[in-house]
Write a structure and sequence with these properties.
This protein is an alpha+beta fold. The chain has 3 domains: about 5-35, no CATH class; about 40-115, Orthogonal Bundle (Helix Hairpins), CATH 1.10.287; about 125-270, Heat Shock Protein 90. Helices cover about 45% and strands about 20% of the residues. The protein has helices at about 40-85, 90-115, 125-135, 140-145, 165-180, 215, 235-245, and strands spanning about 5, 15-20, 25-30, 145-155, 185-195, 200-205, 250-255, 260-270. It has a 5-stranded mixed sheet. A 3-stranded antiparallel sheet has the order 1-2-3, with no helix packed on it. Helix 3 crosses helix 5 (about 165-180). Residues about 1-35 have low confidence and may be disordered.
Amino acid sequence: MKETPARHTEGTISEGLVASTSGTNTLPITLCTVNPQKISSEVLKQMAYNDKMAELGRISAGVVHELNAPLSVIVSASQMIMREEGVPEFVRELIERISSEAQRLSQMTRGILNFSSHEEAGDHADVNLTVEFVLDFLAYEASRRGVSLIRSLDHRLPVVRIESNVLKQILINLVMNALQAMEPVGGRLQVESRVLNSSEVCLVISDTGPGIAEESLKRIFEPYFTTKRPGEGTGLGLFVSRTLVENLGGRIEVQSSLGEGTTFTVTLLAEETD
């Protein structure tokens, strides 16, 4: 094959031509090389942050696994005490509370392990089950921020063309953004699922937060753009979420104005049925 090499300098993009195997036609190409010294500091910071979070995830999974054993002992011991006769009523109430809280913590740890699992997933997801998982997973975060979680789920929904773990990531990004926006006064967050038409379903995430200014709304999906305080976010959550959805043929839309809350609508393709 005849070639016409494209000259390029390190860290630049240049164009050239490559001859076809017949030698009669030429094809345009673009060459791109990366100079490590020219990588922006923001990208380097993000790479370091990703590495740190990955390591934190591995450590957390180990800690959570170790917590499950004593929690199981607490639950079992509580149930054994409850079966004993002659236990004073006030002691019984305390034991019931201990057992209930231990079971709640055990459920949370299982949720963390499931979320951090890297097992292969299918290419479709049950939207309502995923919503239930995410809202249960973030229930404590909502409670400590004074936010009420409301679910309005259409149980006629078909499965959608997206991996369950990807949908979890998108929902967690959107819900956490809403929870953080409603600090410190709290509020209400509603997640609604519904059928749009024969080929699409949608998720609507609405909050009663302060809303988003028009100038910020125009840039809301840009990478590294954030309205959060320093240290609270990287500005990549919405960018990544939109990219994931659009790569699967879906879309994310946002409506908001100051003082009137914010609504994100995620539209996904339904799985075709025979």
